[in-house]
Amino acid sequence: MFTGIIEEIGTVKSVSKGAKSAVLTISAAGIFSDLKPGDSVATNGVCLTVASIDGLVFTSDVMNETLTRSSLGSLKPGNRVNLERAMPADGRFGGHIVSGHIDGTGTISTIRKEDIATWYTIRTAPQIMRYIVEKGSIAIDGISLTVAQVQRESFSVSIIPHTAQETVLPERAIGSTVNLENDILGKYVEKLMAAPGGITKELLLENGFA
Fold first, then answer.
1. 146 near 157, Cβ under 8 Å?
2. What dotted CATH number matches 104-190?
3. 11, 137, 164, 190: most buried by Cβ count inside 10 Å?
4. Where are the alpha helices (DSSP H) in 125-183?
5. CATH 2.40.30.20 residue ranges for the chain
6. Which CATH number is associated with domain 8-85?
7. Which H or E run contains 53?
8. pTM of the model
9. Which residue, among 206, 2, 205, has the nearest Cα to 102 in the 3D structure?
């Protein structure tokens, strides 16, 4: 599990593509203090398993499901990526629950400055929009952000200078593709509400929830 608080920005050293897979080699610095093979690293929001480590470089295998559902398939050597190690049990929970299993991608449709903030509007598919609520949480390329506005086919977030400085989001332009992960709580609630014998309005009322 991750929190969406980016630890550092890494750089893609190489991308070795197979027929339906890829091996990413990424250089970084700070995350290697306790990193070992088998650990999880969220890379632009996608949970990857560290396959090997060589100095300040790690490699990860990426399967076809991940390549087709995320933007990792378009990475090239030299691209910078957001990195976050899995949350330690005694760590601070600064963002929100992020699994690293993204729901899909979105496209940046507008970028505008507002004093010190930068607004990004992102268009995405209906199956992702259904879980996005105003003032709720969304992970964009692994960054835990608060949804500021919701439109029919898009949503907007407002980025503070610290987030801009510590992530690769400012390197994105209009038309760029970003990885999106909905707040997992909404998906669990929907599943429980739909299940036979699950949570219903009547059950809540019977148990004192008005």
1. yes
2. 2.40.30.20
3. 137
4. 126-129, 161-166
5. 8-85, 104-190
6. 2.40.30.20
7. strand 46-54
8. 0.90
9. 2
